[in-house]
Design goal:
2 domains, 2,3-Dihydroxybiphenyl 1,2-Dioxygenase, domain 1
Length: about 170
């Protein structure tokens, strides 16, 4: 079989765009409920061991076969969404109502605010607000990279959650 000639590469090609990120999932049905009902994602693909969502224009996949998980105390890998200050506070309250622990809001420079939480499988999700939180200067400070001692990332693990008013 003849392969087409590959031109000499002088650098990387320009990518057409970002397609998706996929993360491990301990239970696909639970993951679907979380990403759809808690985070508001729209299901794009649903297969026996994989689901793909559109959240804020980002495609996020969760898979339940052949997965590895984030180790304790690790912040990386994680996914992050840009939010406004009001939306960040609203999401923190909503997650609390769903029984999902979050970090307190924290900052690196005293201008931006960050918050972490985990999905039910332990994957870390960050909500990043560039500016606009009037109390950001008073938030706990983290280093330029990572969270340092500003938060306890291991306190974010949980084993159960539910939608408010959900009897299941």
């Amino acid at each position: 079989m003849n392969q087409p000639a590959i031109p000499k590469a002088d650098g990387p090609p320009e990518f057409k765009g970002f397609d998706h990120v996929s993360m491990p999932c301990r239970d696909l049905d639970e993951g679907i409920r979380f990403y759809r009902d808690v985070l508001g994602g729209e299901i794009v693909v649903k297969q026996p061991a994989f689901a793909l969502f559109n959240i804020a224009g980002t495609r996020i996949g969760i898979g339940s076969d052949g997965c590895t998980f984030v180790t304790e105390s690790a912040e990386y890998p994680h996914i992050a969404f840009h939010v406004g200050a009001e939306e960040q506070v609203q999401m923190k309250e909503w997650l609390g109502r769903c029984g999902v622990p979050t970090t307190d809001l924290w900052t690196r420079q005293g201008i931006e605010s960050l918050m972490f939480f985990r999905d039910p499988s332990g994957n870390i999700i960050e909500l990043f607000c560039y500016e606009g939180n009037k109390d950001a200067a008073d938030f706990p400070r983290g280093p330029a990279r990572g969270h340092g001692s500003a938060i306890d990332i291991d306190a974010l693990y949980y084993t159960s959650w539910s939608l408010p008013g959900d009897a299941s």
